[in-house]
Amino acid sequence: MKYKKTGDNSWIITVQENGKTKELFVEFPPDALDQVGWDTGDTLIWEELDHGYSIRKKED
User: How far, in Å, CA of 14 to CA of 9, rounded?
Assistant: First the structure.
């Protein structure tokens, strides 16, 4: 995983690239997943906003 904790509730996470598919991805630190209640395998929605991005868990 490529990340750096910068505060109690913040991290800098490196966007990585799959060498075969060239698809971009991020790996979230376990502490971050615990804080937001996400689990490995959850589907996340990435939204581009005017002044940044929002990531949220897709609800069933």
Answer: 17
